Amino acid sequence: MLRRVGPSLRHFLLEMKSSAGYSSYSKAKMSRPVQARRLEGIDKNIWVEFVKLAATYSTVNLGQGFPDFPPPDFLKEAFMRALSGENHMLHQYTRAFGHLPLVKILAQFLGKLLGRDVDPMTNVMVTVGAYQALFCCFQAFVDEGDEVIIIEPFFDCYEVMVKMAGGLPVFVPLRPKFPKDGKLMSSADWQLDPDELASKFSERTKAIILNSPNNPLGKVFSQGELELIADLCVKHDVLCISDEVYEWLVYDGKEHIRIASLRGMWDRTVTIGSAGKTFSATGWKVGWTVGPNRLLQHLRTVHQNSVYHCATVAQEAVAQSFQRELELFGKPESYFVQLPKELQQKRDWLVQRMDAVGMKPIVPEGTYFLVADISEFKSDVTDVPDSDEPYDSRFAKWMVKNKGLATIPLSSFYCGAHKNKYNHFIRFCFAKEEATLKAANDILQKWKQEKTSP
Ligand code: PMP
Ligand code: GLN
User: Fold this and answer.
1) Residue 321: what pLDDT?
2) Is 129 close to ligand 1, i.e. is its CB under 6 Å away?
3) Which of 105, 175, 207, 309 has the smallest count of CB within 10 Å of its CB?
């Protein structure tokens, strides 16, 4: 009956309406459960929730991580050339695993950074942002019951993606050491306990996910910390998924060390990057994975059977921008030199303002996030002991609704019991224009004055 179309359709519908057939047809609603079991308990998403709150209430948005300043001209110009230039083939499909100019330049660039030959065809794969790179990794490597070690606080999707693949996340926290001398805390004061980390590895461990520089703390893992992780990976024959999307956003002359460059690690590591963070264009959603063919071949299997391919024009523009950066490598005109310099100034300004206002900042060594302690502002937002919702989440919601300032609660980057342990911090994104940061400071300053005036 469903095949009846065209001029006879109206007649058919009228017939159905006037017959017993219509009522039985309209009652034929599905009653069986439709949701796949792997989606159970993961329907809520911190970004969807807080982006909506920010759009509804905020006048100043330091929540979701994206720059509100424009991306560099050379990137936009490369996109315009790709879009309206003579090569109309840039509007068509390109190579599934990455547009040739992009994989070639990424291989050259990352080969230089990793100190090894990187083959563009087998060691690099382009993805729809780092998100899809992560998704490919978990789908490609994690089987039912496999354990994946996640360092807390962590970028929230790691846990969900492990679970969707049938794996079991195993958490290990960075433990804060509060400075005693009245100095500001640094993200470097959050460290792994080596014995605790070692205790999480077992024969069920398939992989560890590392994120350095770390979202949300801004921690840049030291050589020693990376060697500790690397030694455990080698000892237990475990994979490392290394999310390095903030690789260029490192301050105070600190060095970002790529775990894949450590002894024994290339063969077991997939390194993930993002043009969104690298060139301040998060909406472009161009990401990549780099690693040995032995691992990448499985990512290609997931990619070719799901996304297959990423937007050609954006890949071409990112390729040209990397070409520029390769030519200017280490020079003052390089965007990879200029961007961290500008962001460091913004970080320093915000750290100083936050400290003055009494929201104790944890000085980040990298990324464009700053986590601050809200304890001194607690009296304004009622606590509900034993509530399922961590205090910082209630606080961040109250603040956006009542003060117009959007942030992200730190507890969103924790799981289970730790959500309520680390529940008095909020995360600010400082990749913002001076006016935006000043407006945020004005809100906090005014709030502080209201609190202290009789
Ligand atoms: N990893 C981390 C640590 C992130 O903060 C983000 C968010 N941007 C991603 C991965 C996803 O990056 P992309 O926007 O390139 O998908
Ligand atoms: N990575 C970004 C952040 O941490 C946002 C990710 C998202 O919006 N899904 O703010």
Assistant:
1) 98
2) yes
3) 175
